[in-house]
Amino acid sequence: MDYTESLRSFPLLAKIEEADLTALASFLREKKFAAGTDIITEGDDGDEMFLLIHGSVDIIKKTIFGDSFVVTTLSDSMNCVFGEMAMIDSDKRSSTVRANTDCTALSVRQKEFDAFCHDYPKCGVELLRLISINLVRNIRKENENLKLVYQALIEEIEKG
Fold first, then answer.
1. pLDDT digits over 93-131, tens only?
2. CA separation for the pair 10, 114 (Å, rounded)
């Protein structure tokens, strides 16, 4: 199935030229996941990025005590990407991504993404820049969240 047109709705890909978008689409693979399936598992090695085409997923983290909690829920209407850190490094996955519903995603492995960036360097630089912007935005959000947690902890300690 050709997803080239639906790729245009992803903010990550909005500024990509049509020819480059068509080329990128040829590097993407359709994957289907049943509801309840872990698409990514926290702590596993990662080398694949996903663009959610259909369905809904939970982003899940574990506490230091091993308890799981849902950080956020992403849906196809959000035109979201997950696992994008794997395009920059092949480190351990930072969270679990679980399908809430039957899902369809397009995926690209780091090796294929690197090949695309080599073949289409101008577009590759732009995609890496946009991935970096998303990651920086997430880091800033998490820093704000940490500040709130620290403030709540201080207030709780001061209460006695």
1. 999 999 999 999 999 999 999 999 999 999 999 899 888
2. 20
Which residue, among 115, 82, 114, 113, has the nearest Cα to 99 in the 3D structure?
Answer: 82
CATH classification at residue 95: 2.60.120.10
Range of the domain at 19: 4-159
Q: What does the alpha-carbon distance between residue 30 and residue 153 come to, in Å, rounded to a whole number?
A: 45
In terms of Cβ atoms closer than 10 Å to its own Cβ (0-12, 13-18, 19+), residue 108 is: buried
- Note the helical H segments in the chain: 4-7, 18-27, 110-119, 121-159
Q: In 3D, which of 4, 49, 9 has the Cα closest to residue 22? A: 4
Whole-structure pTM value: 0.86
User: Hey, what are 123's tokens?
Assistant: 């577009």
For residue 9, what are the CA distances in angstroms to 38, 129, 134?
Answer: 25, 18, 16
Q: What is the dihedral of CA 129, 90, 25, 11, to 10 degrees?
A: -40
Q: Domains in the chain: how many in total?
A: 1
What residue has token string 């630089």?
125
